[in-house]
């Protein structure tokens, strides 16, 4: 089944403790992206990747890092999480950045930083 | 700052009724307009990707229209069913940008 797999689904952590949210897709998509969703706001892009070893900042990159060492994986790293990073996170992929097929989203990761 | 507005924010509709809601986006620098359906506790699923002014797309009882000159898109649901209850997201993709700019969504609830 074609899908984007995110882990974990839920995570509660403490301020400053490094964490990684994993994202993997099995569709050979070139483009992958991370979004966060906060109450009252639309999904906002954190980082994106056009292909292996090609990543760039989105609209809200502060406090996050990403890597794209393999085509299928695009982990989101929070080196020192803070409470303002409490949010619902989505990973998404598409065939290419300009694809007209729409994005395939992962199931989301609800992160709470206390 | 790119702004995508959806209205209304929430909507309650009787089963069997038809409904529609709006997405407004910048009319300049247009590349594509996406619609997604997002059920609670699931991931958003692509409904339509529209690129041309005047585009109309249909999937079952759901259809969408696009006006890029004035910067709006309508989503229509005909004969609403309880399974249509979800949040409907629209997203604007500007020319040359590798991102989607999302609206806040319209939360639709179908009352049996």
What is the first-to-last residue Cα distance of chain A?
A: 36 Å
Please describe the biggest sheet of chain B, giving its number of strands, its sense, and whether it closes into a barrel.
6 strands, mixed
Report the C-alpha radius of gyration of chain A, rounded. Answer: 13 Å
Q: In which range does the helix fraction of chain B lie?
A: under 10%
Order of helices and strands of chain A: EEEEEEEEEEE
User: What is the succession of H and E elements of chain B?
Assistant: EEEEEEEEEEE
Oligomeric state of shown chains: heterodimer
Q: Could you tell me the radius of gyration of chain B in angstroms?
A: 13 Å
Strand content of chain B: over 45%
For the largest interface, the chains and their residue counts are:
A-B, 27 and 24 residues
Catalogue the unreliable spans of chain A: none
Global shape of chain B: globular
Can you give a write-up of this model?
- The complex is a heterodimer of chains A (114) and B (112).
- With 114 residues, chain A is an all-beta fold.
- Chain A has strands spanning 4-7, 10-13, 19-25, 31-37, 44-51, 54-57, 65-66, 76-78, 87-94, 104-105, 109-113.
- In chain A, a hairpin with a 6-residue loop joins strand 4 and strand 5.
- The radius of gyration of chain A is 13 Å and the shape is globular.
- In chain B, a hairpin with a 4-residue loop joins strand 7 and strand 8 (72-77).
- The radius of gyration of chain B is 13 Å and the shape is globular.
- The A-B interface holds A 4, 31, 33, 35, 40-45, 48, 50, 56, 58-59, 90, 97-98, 100-108 and B 4, 31-32, 34, 36, 42-49, 51, 89, 91, 98-105.
């Amino acid at each position: 089944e074609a899908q984007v797999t995110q882990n974990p689904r839920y995570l509660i952590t403490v301020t400053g403790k490094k964490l990684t949210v994993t994202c993997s897709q099995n569709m050979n998509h070139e483009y992958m992206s991370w979004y966060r969703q906060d109450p009252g706001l639309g999904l906002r892009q954190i980082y994106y990747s056009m292909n292996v070893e090609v990543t760039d900042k989105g609209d809200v990159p502060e406090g996050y890092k990403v890597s794209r060492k393999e085509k299928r994986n695009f982990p989101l790293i929070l080196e020192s999480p803070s409470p303002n990073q409490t949010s619902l996170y989505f990973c998404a992929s598409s065939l290419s950045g300009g694809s007209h097929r729409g994005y395939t989203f992962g199931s989301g990761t609800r992160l709470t930083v206390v | 700052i790119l702004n995508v507005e959806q209205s209304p924010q929430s909507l309650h509709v009787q089963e069997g009724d038809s409904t529609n809601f709006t997405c407004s986006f910048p009319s300049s620098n247009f590349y594509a307009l996406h619609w997604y359906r997002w059920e609670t506790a699931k991931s958003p699923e692509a409904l339509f990707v529209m690129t041309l002014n005047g585009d109309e797309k249909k999937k079952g009882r759901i259809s969408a229209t696009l006006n890029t000159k004035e910067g709006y898109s309508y989503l229509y649901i005909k004969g609403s069913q309880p399974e249509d209850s979800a949040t409907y997201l629209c997203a604007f993709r500007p020319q040359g940008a590798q991102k989607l700019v999302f609206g806040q969504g319209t939360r639709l609830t179908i009352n049996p």
